[in-house]
Design brief:
The complex is a heterodimer of chains A (about 280) and B (about 375). By secondary structure, chain A is an alpha/beta fold. Chain A has helices at about 5-15, 70-75, 100, 120-125, 140-150, 165-180, 195-210, 225-230, 245-250, 255-260; strands at about 30-40, 40-55, 55-60, 85-90, 90, 105-110, 185-190, 215-220, 230-235, 240-245, 265-270, 275-280. Chain A is globular and about 50 Å long. Chain B is mostly helical and about 375 residues long. The chains are: A alpha/beta (about 280), B mainly alpha (about 375).
Chain lengths: ~280, ~375
């Protein structure tokens, strides 16, 4: 038994929370199996199965209203599924307490808000809340510091969140999620408000985390970002899973033309050979 | 699963980063604030106890307190078999023959009640604002005060006297609590409470409560009508130790619940969903918070009548000085509210000779313009709340 394991066991006894184990690369960290969701009488998700594997970036793409965000909400437990099951770290999502779930998955929502003018550093520190009272609390300062650096927000750590621009706020929210240091990262359009450099930076961070063994699920609108950064892509349309696989397998002109109801052409990048997706104009 | 990336050149590295500096600065400032508020509270309390128709210098007030403390501690020690002469009995005693009685039978209970009610109202305000993520939220939203007014006015009208002198306080507390629970129950659906629904339900229930109070005022005898009106203006006139003893347990439990929620309330500022993703049980938090508010405000209103603006102005001021973190905001608001109400009550008692001004009128008179100024200031410095 390693020292870490002893400390974790002790903390679990003290707080009554089951602490997560280090994820094994390639294992399923979070999974939606045959999930259907009905909202206001409409079936917005119909028998969808995806799995997030440790060490992998999974991109969810598809046209507006395809059910990408709903699928992410099902994975977070925010919406109740009408059929199918959602699992996290080997157990049904509902088997975990709110804090135990928070130790296992961090969520970045599309809309970032803050009711009171906390500073950037305080917001990022909030990401450490699930670990309060556990031995991992000792890593708080280090986790916050590296998260601030990773999201490129350290230079304004002392400023009030409410005084920042939309793009800056989005990165602070990302830093908060990174500071949580969970085995699963669920990101809902993390690049929407960002400039080109920061889009690359954010997905670069997602890749780095995946390389360190984290399972990353990211909702993306930009198919080129998905093609460049994802290990696997799941294409959703009309609440159904249309295709899933590597970007080169899935992101083909015929399939995208069909899904987006717009003529799409896919060309191989002359240097890297990666698919480049363009609407035919 | 620790991810390390090379920090961009703009990011400071090493132990002494901006983060550590900022949080240390905030902590230092918060410590100073709490200390300053505590000292101010002690000073104002002592000065206030000495002021009135019979003037007693602060030194004599302190002397009287120390004398009692000394005697009581020695008595406690004797009970456990220790005979000791504690060196606490220092300072001058009140010179006036009625000095001791004035202090211990009239002034101290009133000042202590002001202190408790002020702390409760300000803490309840901070709690409501945290729970609803809105700096304008007030305990009145969930109907505590309007509900309490219903109970009090019905007692005045019917002349009910089932609990002697306690009737008004008990009725006010009970109806305040019931109204709050009603608002909460009506606004719940499918195991969840939406903030907007809760606020609007509060508006609806409050309207009915005011209608009942209006009807009570209409049918009341001139004497009862006067009681209803004055009760709603708020006053600590005639406060006695029994009231303090009755209020104290609710205050202690309410304050303890509030401070226990501090960290979760910080997370709730991120919105309900994000708070849940960080491990906060949002529904439970909200229910406990509303229970705490009902206890704090209900017990205060029961004895002091309706006193507005304390819960709005004090947390706002504290937030400007120490930032919005609830671990400082809640205790500092309690101290600030106590300080404000002890000061306001001193003015109410002494501003006009032989007159006891309505306390609720004073807090609204000062609180209204102050709140407006705070709004303008926050707007210019932070670009509003969006």
């Amino acid at each position: 038994m390693t020292r870490t394991e002893v400390r974790r066991g002790w903390a679990a006894v003290r707080r009554g929370h089951r602490l997560p184990a280090t994820p094994v690369a390639g294992s399923i960290a979070s999974e939606a199996a045959g999930v259907s969701v009905t909202l206001g009488g409409a079936r917005v998700l119909d028998d969808v199965s995806v799995e997030a594997r440790a060490g992998e970036v999974l991109a969810l793409v598809g046209p507006n209203g395809a059910g990408k965000s709903t699928l992410l909400s099902a994975l977070t437990g925010d919406v109740a599924v009408s059929a199918g099951t959602v699992t996290l770290d080997g157990a049904t999502l509902t088997a975990w307490s709110a804090t135990e779930a928070a130790m296992r998955r961090a969520v970045l929502l599309q809309q970032v808000r803050l009711s009171f003018p906390f500073t950037v550093a305080e917001v990022v520190e909030m990401g450490r809340a699930p670990w309060a009272g556990t031995p991992l609390e000792d890593g708080d300062d280090e986790a916050v510091r590296s998260a601030l650096a990773e999201a490129d927000v350290a230079s304004f750590a002392g400023r009030r969140f409410t005084s920042l621009s939309g793009g800056e706020q989005a990165r602070v929210a990302l830093a908060r999620v990174l500071a949580q240091r969970t085995g699963v990262l669920l990101l809902d359009e993390p690049t929407a408000a960002l400039d080109l450099r920061h889009q690359e930076l954010v997905l670069g961070v997602a890749r780095t985390r995946a390389a360190a063994g984290v399972a990353v699920v990211v909702v993306l609108h930009d198919l080129n970002l998905a093609a460049a950064h994802a290990d696997r892509v799941a294409v959703l349309a009309g609440g159904r899973l249309v295709a899933t696989g590597s970007p080169r397998e899935v992101l083909g002109g015929a399939l995208l033309t069909d899904v987006y109801e717009h003529d799409v052409e896919v060309i191989a990048h002359p240097r890297t050979g990666a698919p480049v997706i363009l609407p035919r104009r | 699963m620790t991810a390390t990336v090379s920090a961009p050149p703009s990011a400071p590295a090493g132990p002494d980063t901006g983060v550590a500096r900022v949080s240390r600065w905030r902590r230092g400032r918060s410590g100073v604030l709490i200390a300053a508020l505590s000292i101010a509270l002690v000073v104002v309390t002592i000065v206030s106890a000495g002021r009135g128709q019979l003037q007693i210098p602060p030194a004599e007030v302190v002397g009287s307190i120390l004398h009692r403390l000394d005697a009581n501690l020695e008595w406690v020690l004797r009970q456990i078999g220790v005979t000791a002469d504690l060196p606490l009995d220092v300072g001058p005693r009140p010179e006036h023959v009625q000095g001791e009685n004035t202090l211990w039978l009239v002034r101290f209970p009133r000042v202590v009640l002001a202190l408790l009610v002020g702390a409760a109202l300000a803490t309840a305000g901070a709690l409501m604002q945290g729970v609803f993520g809105n700096p304008l939220a007030e305990p009145a939203i969930v109907g505590v005060s309007p509900g309490a007014a219903v109970g009090a006015s019905l007692v005045f009208v019917t002349g009910a006297n089932f609990l002697g002198e306690w009737t008004v306080a008990v009725a006010a507390f009970a109806t305040g609590l019931v109204t709050t629970l009603l608002v909460y129950a009506l606004s719940r659906s499918g195991g969840r409470t939406e903030v907007v629904t809760l606020v609007l339900t509060g508006v609806a229930v409050t309207a009915v409560a005011f209608a009942i109070v209006a009807f009570a005022t209409f049918v009341a005898t001139p004497e009862a009508r006067e009681q209803i009106v004055f009760w709603q203006l708020g006053s600590l006139n005639g406060a006695r130790w029994q009231a303090v003893v009755a209020v104290l347990p609710f205050m202690v439990v309410g304050l303890a619940l509030a401070i226990g929620m501090a960290r979760s309330l910080d997370l709730l500022a991120l919105g309900e969903r994000s708070a849940r993703h960080l491990g906060v049980h949002v529904e439970r938090l909200r229910l406990v918070a509303i229970a705490a508010v009902a206890m704090l405000v209900g017990s205060g209103v029961a004895f002091a009548g309706v006193i507005g603006f304390v819960g709005l102005v004090v947390p706002h001021l504290i937030r400007m000085i120490a930032g919005p973190g609830h671990r400082v905001l809640l205790p500092a608001s309690a101290l600030g509210g106590a300080l404000l109400l002890v000061s306001a009550d001193l003015v109410a008692r002494t501003a006009i000779r032989y007159a006891d001004l309505p306390l609720g009128m004073l807090t609204a008179l000062v609180g209204g313009p102050l709140f407006f100024w705070l709004l303008r200031r926050t707007r210019t410095s932070q670009g509003g709340w969006a």
